[in-house]
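Async update (no meeting this week)

Hi team, since we skipped the sync, here's where things stand on the single-chain job. The sequence we agreed to prioritize is pasted below, unchanged from the tracker. I ran it this morning and attached the output directly underneath so nobody has to dig for it. Comments welcome in thread, and please keep replies under the output.
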Amino acid sequence: MSRIQKLLKDTAVYGISSILGRALNVLIVPFYAHYLPVNDNGVIGVVFAAFVFLNILYTYGLEAAYFKFTSGKEGRIKANKTFSTTTLMLLISGITFSLTMSAFPAVTSNLITLNPEWQQLVFYMAAIVLLDTMAAIPLAELRLSNRPYRFAAVKLSNITLNLVLNVIFIAFFHWGIVGVFLANVLASGFQVLVLLPVYFERFRFMYDGQTAKSLLKYGLPLLPNGLAFAATETLSRFFLNMMEKGQILALYGNVIPAAERAKLLTPEDYGDYVTGVFNNIYKIGVFMMLFTQMFRFAWQPFYFNHAGDPDAKPLFARVFLLFTAIGLTAWLCITFFAREIVAFPLPEGRTLLPAQYWFALPIVPIVLGAYFLQGWESIFSAGIYIQKQTSRLIPITLLGAFVTFLLNFLFVPHYGLLAAAWGTFGAYFVMSLGVYFSAQKIYPIPHNWTQIAILVAGALGIFALWQFLPILQHWYFELLLLGGFIALMFGTGILSYDLIQTLRKRQGE
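Output:
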């Protein structure tokens, strides 16, 4: 097997396991929606948003540093020393962070806007993040030592156990939110247990100060970029959770059922409620995220493999055109059928998501658009990676985080859910533009923006017709609209069978 074939094979295993893992995690959303109150779903959303930040803080770039210093022949020779030093650093700092969180639960819960009623969840958070941190380096070692199937087995078994325990603790034991986080603690602990053979293989009771300095020198500068990415993805939950009761009732008092309002006993419950609605409807965007992620797994080895080809830049331009065409078709399709998705019938007269969540459906096309732009950013960044100038990405990511913060800070108190969704969209829009212009300076690609404009205008025009003519919001008209968009692509010559065949052939090379 050639090196390229092996790369593609490993990429497929990592990609499928990652995508399958995300898909399995999405399966739990309808379960939470039916078995837990809406405001409890908001509490879960806030804590899981905090996990994104905490995981980055707890590892502070050392996972990436471990990849850097243990790859290659020389790195593999020193792998035991680097593994041991990194593990001890993360263990000591992780225990310190978790003890600090546990010692000051009120401070921690205030920082993440957690409802004071659920302050005890801080202890579960401290345990979960610590355990996940202790799994990070063994998982990195599996990837470095070319054991993709074992890596995938560990990740998927963790997620599956988590799902099973959630069902047992919530549906049968009726432990509610506590059951959610107890399941996470046990699943994270199980993951560390199954990774013990990697510890036995690599860990020695040694600590090398020079190695530690090198790891920190490489890893710490990555921390701001990681936190900025976390802000782009999750900051909206915290701003929604901070909305005041009066603001929420002014915006949604007529759509929150009276029976639901009766369950909201404190002002904080209202913030949890809108966060829960947003968080679960936001998950519909996972369809576009999975599409973008699948593309990215194939795209990264593709552009490295073909960067030296004489027609590399025109080839990459055709990839961008094809991604835009397929992505916009997916955007229209999921937007059109979002209501059918949430209303999908389940046994006992239930639907996939209960009706009290549906008033947030207008955020779906915005969230889908944000993940579509994430795909554009991935395509544009190829030139930056090819030219090995990845430092250009740091200020762009920080700018995206600032845009997210600004839009949420200014508009969420007045426009609620829509503003939170636009905050994410705005961040990815700014980042995709920033990456495009930065990459074009060092690796110009001749994109056909006229054809791209036709595609975007056509998709937006069809969406506007659908949005403002309710008669079109039936599945048979929606299929006709999708057919019209596909006909536009082929009728204008933007897409052709020859183009698709050419790209498929080059992917196989």
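Quick observations from my side:
The chain has two domains: 1-241, 285-509.
The first helix runs from residue 3 to 35.
Reply here if anything looks off.
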